[in-house]
Amino acid sequence: MISAQLPALQVILPMFAAPIAILLRRGKLAWMLALVVTWIAFAISLVLLFQVLDDGPIQYFFGGWAPPWGIEYRIDALNAFVLVIIGAIGAAVLLFAGPSVEKEIREGHQHLFYALVMLLLAGLFGIAITGDAFNVFVFLEIASLASYALIAMGKDRRALTAAFQYLILGTVGATFFLIGVGLLYAMTGTLNMADMAERIHEIHDSRAVLTAFAFLTVGIALKAAVFPMHYWLPGAYAYAPSVVSALLAGTATKVAVYLLLRFIMIFGADFAYVALPLGATLAVLAAIGILVASSSAILQNDAKRLLAFSSVAHLGYIVLGVGLGNDAGVTGGILHMFNHALAKGAVFLAMGAVMLQIGATHINKLKGLGAVMPWTMAGFTVAGLSLIGVPLTAGFVSKWYIVTAAIDRGWWPLAVVMVVSSILAVFYIWRIIDAVYFSPPGANTENVKEAPVIMLAPLWALAGASVYFGIDSSFPASVAGKAAAIVLAQMP
Amino acid sequence: MAFLGTYNYWIFITLMMIGLYIVIVRGNLVKKIIGLNIFQSSVFLFFISVGKVSDGTAPIILHDGGEAIYSNPLPHVLILTAIVVAVSTSALALALIVRIHESYGTLQEELIHEAERAP
Amino acid sequence: MNETWIIAAALVTPLLAMVGIGVFRNRPNLREGASLIAAAILFGLAVWLVPGVADGDRPELVLFEFLPGISLGFQVEPLGLGFALIGSFLWFITTLYSIGYMRAHNENNQTRFYLFFALALGAVTGAAFAANLVTLYVFYEALTLATIPLVTHSGGEESRRAGRVYVGILLGTSLTMMLIAIAWIWILTGTTDFIAGGVFVEDGALIQGITPGILGALLVLMVLGTGKAGLMPFHKWLPAAMVAPTPVSALLHAVAVVKMGVFTVLKVTIYTFGIETLSSFDLGRALMYLAAFTLIAAGIFALREDNLKRRLAYSTISQLAYIVLGALLVTRLGSIAGGMTIAAHAFAKITLFFCAGALMVTLHKTKVSEMNGVGRIMPITMAAFLVASLSVAGLPFTGGFWGKWYLALGALEADQIVMFWVILAGSLLSLSYLLPVAVRAFFAGPKDAPITLAGEARWPMTVAISTTAVITVLLFFAAEPIFGFLDTIIFKGTITVQ
User: What is the distance between the alpha carbons of residues C326 and C315, in angstroms, rounded to a whole number?
Assistant: First the structure.
């Protein structure tokens, strides 16, 4: 039965598509292959999510080898949700990719580009799906190496240094993660995350476990760009090719946050939140990060860089929710992973469309675009409202969860930070809106045409989803609630 | 002596700090990569030394079918994978360095930043 | 309940109007026709609801759960229904007026104008019928967003700047203070529903964990967070918004947006905090003084303003402070006076704006100092202006009288002598900044010029001006049913006034 093999196919399809894409040697063909594979992967992730929701967690023994010898894939509500986020963003971005890649990537490199994208997706799916701690490391590095290379394919030469910087910090983070896994293995004698979670309870007091926890959190936080370890992110997102920015902004950091949640679950929420001050530490760092990144976003002159800083701020929202450590907070954090992926994916796609038509994303170059690219800019505006967190957009729903969670815990300053940051978001989104709609058009926007439909469709799909899930949030909210319950299972 | 009994950890930590120090302090991109390699290698050493069982032999079935104490083979396997990852990372980093040198004409971090700041 | 579908229809009508406007974007007559028909239908639906609501019915419509435990829900009660009636009726009149204005003024992007106008009215309807704070908040923000393109309609540097101020203040106050207040109320009480008598009291005592101090903080957050109510120092957006075309200033910035603000304040004091709760803990006194200050200060600003529209804007801020003051007196009379002032001020101020627009389009006069003698050229317009001025000041035989009257009585009832004098002083101030305009128009300038009707604006505009002016007078005689409508129902059985 093929349905029983879906967890393996989720990772293997994109992974095998990568060498095939190289063999195809033609950009267009590789694009079609990548498109088909991603959509199948998206479908698989949806099927898996519904299976998990209906029948509970899925276990899959890779190659038929049961743990502890083999690698186990274990899917519960938490990672099924993350798989759907990756699948959805991947599906939307690859549909968009065709024209954008043709313009931004050199002719002979396009098939390689798609091969790397496939590897990136395989890595991201793998991190989310696997139940083996070392396997996480391997997939983490697959995804990271692919993204370093992809970022470096940006046209601006600063893409190279941004990629290099990301490589250094990313490798340090991944190696920290590896140290943590090694210590855990030494203490528990297993790499299977479920077994680890069982055994770790008896040795909570061990200093080695504490050290492992420290290395893991810092390593993951580096990957998740948690303030003050976000230094690599703005450059990487700003100078990467548009398609890569959209893909990474929607998925990469989310997956790292997922890892954080998974390890909180393995160590036990009581250990992370009660015995150790992880919650407060994360929340305070996140709050500072939100304010610093939002303020920096206002000062940027390049729209993509501005949006990258906004990404750091929104990661702060997610981490803040996680740090609050109560039901509403973690639910809100997980929900915001989804909602932010939709909105940020959409705005980066809009910037991709702009890049295609005018070849720049500097705010001064965007003047008057609202008149010549009405659909692109309307989509940008809708998604921008979700980033601000205006009611009836998805961003409001997750913000509501996090603000109420902060008030509920009595952490008032954090609630204030959340709402103040929406004002900052109004300012930075307004800078672009102001240029696009209310400034006299510049010389470079004459004769500019609207982006092709194949780019507008995914942009509007994401923007529309931002509105839809802002009006009827019950489905993602219920899944996020289930996922939060898994994370907080050990909470006293 | 407790200190000497855990000497493998001390070596690991020393190497790790040397590696990280180079990554942070050195301005030359190639040196940064060398530092990164030292840092990663220290972790590999750590993993392998953790798998060592006192008086254990290599985990190979004896010819005469007799019993023996083996070292844990799993860390070796894992590190084999990790080494592959590290090599790929170095390769990618070096490729990036070549490209950076082509477009900036230098490998010194400060000079690159200067070039970036200038329009 | 068969009235449920009326609510649904009322919510959908503006959206259908948008569709119609979009479809007929190249046929101006049909486009404006769609607006007029939608406005008429909306008004009809609201009227349809009146008898039932007056009998104590509370038709409800719950759409879906929007946040956990919080639904996007609607419930019709007198205050909201009154707001919806005013909004929809004046939408009709304003559309009529806009037809003349927009064409005479040759404005660009008229389709966009009518589209967002309809959207704004949809937001007003949703807010008017909101059954809980979150629903109200949703439509409050929707109204802000829907009006941005209208404020910045003309383009250019000045509207850009106005747009920044508008967005900054309105979103700034509501996204921070109001949102926090709502979330806090939700955490404290587990409900955001509007319940007669308030949500903080259970069995005659405050719910456990709530202190008067918390209530006071919530009230401050809520009232200041309602930037649309124009309390100082969050009033700057209103004069800034005057760069918009006159129909926008007339309907949105004299009626819909600002009334949304005071409506929110009234609704929250009555249905979330509860008049009785507020008065028994004597909360809101500081805010009341802020309202009084705003009332006087805005009046003085209005005196110094030469641009007619901006003068009217400051006058609006001052009048809004009356309504907020009425709500914060936390007496039955104060709240009713607030409700009546909403109605009376809506008709009076929209008339004034209509006149300002007519003067601008036909005579290209926008400054008070240029008004000499215009009454001889446009007698109908200026007569309407005079009537509306008297109503704003609250003189007898105009609709504005009763609101001021009951407000003054309410102040005396609450032993707020200072407020009583503030109310009177505010009236005098409004006379002194509005009457000179009419006086200049009729008595200054060339004495011998003949009075003719030839100088009046296009007929749709003049019709609109006359209608609202006549209603301003009629409201004086219709005070009793309005008072009864607001009185018997808001407080029925649930609140006993000391």
Answer: 17
C495 falls in which pLDDT band (50, 70, 90)? Answer: very low
* B-chain residues near A175 (CB < 8 A): 39-40, 43
Q: Is the pLDDT of residue A110 over 50?
A: yes
In angstroms, the CA C250 to CA C312 distance is 10
E strand intervals along A194-241: none
HEC assignment per residue over C374-417: HHHHCHHHHHHHHHHHHHHHCCCCCCHHHHHHHHHHHHHHCCCH
Q: Tokens 């994370």 — which residue?
A: A487
Q: Which of B83, B85, B110 to mutate to test the interface with A (most CBs of A within 10 A)?
A: B85
What is the rounded CA–CA span in Å between residue B43 and residue A141?
A: 15
B2-52+68-117: which CATH number, 1.10.10.10, 3.40.50.300, 3.40.50.620, 1.10.287.3510? 1.10.287.3510
Identify the CA nearest to A375 among candidates A362, A361, A357, A359. A357
Q: How far is C69 from chain A (nearest CA, A)?
A: 11
DSSP labels, C445-458: S-SSPPP-STTS--
Report the amino acid identity of residue C144. Answer: T
CB contacts, 8 Å: C179 with chain A: 403, 419, 422
The rounded distance, in Å, linking the Cα atoms of C375 and C382 is 5
**Letter for the amino acid at B67?**
E
- Residue B69, min C-alpha distance to chain A (Å): 17
- Rounded distance, CA C90 to CA C83, Å? 11
Average pLDDT over residues A250-272: 90
pTM, 2 dp: 0.89
Q: Give residue-wise pLDDT tens across range C322-338.
A: 888 888 887 888 888 88
Neighbours of chain B (3+ CB pairs under 8 A): A
